Amino acid sequence: MENFVKPQFFSFLREEAAAAVQRYSPHHKFMAHSGFGNQFAESTSSSADDVQDPEVSDSESSVVGSVHEERSSGLMRIDEGDKIYGIISNKFLSGLGCFGLSTEITAIHKETCSSFIKQAKLQSFLIFSKAVEKKCGGNANVKYAWFGASNDEINNIFSHGFSHSSNNGAYSQAICLSPDDNSHDCLQAAVPDKNGVRHLLLCRVILGKTEVVHPGSGQCHPSSEEYDTGVDNLSSPRKYIVWSTHMNSYVFPEFMVSFRVSSHAKESQRNTVPVQNPKSPWITFPALISALSKFLPPQTVKLITKYHNDHKVCA
């Protein structure tokens, strides 16, 4: 009987969850763990009072360019004069690089957790955060990250949670998010709706201890119990990789940014890759190996380098 969980454990979890919801607001202390610093915490006093109130005015009854109904979805539109609106919009636009100048934000919405189901999802996230914090010696490594998808996909995420990976096959058993200072990498996934409006989710993500995961590796879970999630680069990650088994426990969508990109910017985006192509019909082997090392596993790069060196010796 020692292998069974004691009933007291479940009572403990319920008490922890109830306390967590009581402490929750969209400007929770986790905000300070991300690249946003303490800016969110400073703005709590101006907008935290309406967090749990599901009622909104008729003028805010829908998300611009989408089919969301705020009363039923639990999303509440943030006023442009709110300090949090400025913090999120500045972070979003700066992360777009040169495209930020050609991008217009149409609305920013926040999750209010007004339904019992969404409160339960929040409880789950906070419990897992606490568990990973204890596992990792006091730091759950919670970050803010962007996730782009079509309007229908985002509707489903808010209603039912993440249901599948959306990464063009690069990480087939996971979902990928971009760090809060790199919203640009989510543009392609943010498919415009019939009104030309795109949407990005700003999510809280439990990273815990990360490991490098190479695209196309086929990895579908942490390589050992030591790790929790993956990244493409340990020192300066551009992708946070959360396994599909944990995507609805380790990721909590908290804000949605709706925006339009001008036709000029979209044309520039289409032309970005061709401009970077070599202008000559040849490329040196060292340059080729350097380029391949950015997306091939280290073992493969070492093998290519060995073959190249062997060829030089034989020649």
TrEMBL record:
InterPro entries: Poly(ADP-ribose)pol_cat_dom, RCD1/SRO1-5, RST
Coiled-coil parts of chain: none
Keyword Transport set for record: no
TM spans (from-to): none
Location of the RST domain: 276-315
Domain of life: Eukaryota
Assigned keywords, A-Z: Developmental protein, Nucleus, Stress response
Classification via Pfam families: RST
Main subcellular location: nucleus
Localization per Swiss-Prot or TrEMBL: Nucleus
MF terms (GO), sorted A to Z: NAD+ poly-ADP-ribosyltransferase activity
Segments of this protein annotated with the region Disordered: 41-64
SUPFAM superfamilies, per database record: ADP-ribosylation (SSF56399)
PARP catalytic domain ranges (all copies): 58-280
GO cellular component: nucleus
Listed PANTHER family: INACTIVE POLY [ADP-RIBOSE] POLYMERASE SRO4-RELATED
Protein name: Inactive poly [ADP-ribose] polymerase SRO2
This protein's encoding gene: LOC102597186
